[in-house]
Design brief:
The protein has one helix and seven strands. The protein has one helix at residues 93-98, and strands at 4-9, 14-24, 27-28, 34-40, 45-50, 61-69, 83-87.
Length: 111
């Protein structure tokens, strides 16, 4: 099964998100990332993505995301912390071998 993931952000401060790079096991890779769906409500902007990469035990897929921010139009009583999560992995052998069910995140900067 190909790797799939979701990205959830605060819609009051984010206008768009896109994938700008992919690396598989520290090598540049055309992961074939495509947007499955996006949902925007007053409190959540969530995108769901899939890749054509079928991860094997020990593989590491790094994806670079570019997020376009917007100036909020008013107060921000609540802001959705950015989250990234795996989707559609089920009981696939990759998940069973690695035991991993989450992703790490490293932020370059907030401006």
């Amino acid at each position: 099964m190909a790797a799939s993931f979701s990205v959830a952000l605060a819609p009051k401060v984010v206008s768009d998100v896109r994938i700008v790079s992919a690396r598989l096991n520290d090598q540049a890779h055309d992961a074939g990332v495509r947007l499955l769906s996006d949902t925007r409500t007053a409190s959540l902007f969530e995108t769901r993505w899939t890749t054509r990469v079928k991860l094997k035990s020990g593989d590491r897929l790094d994806l670079g995301l570019e997020v376009k921010t917007r100036k909020p139009s008013g107060d921000l009583p609540t802001v959705k912390d950015p989250t990234v999560g795996l989707i559609d992995m089920g009981n696939h052998i990759t998940r069973r071998q690695t035991g991993l069910t989450s992703m790490s995140r490293s932020d370059s900067q907030w401006t």
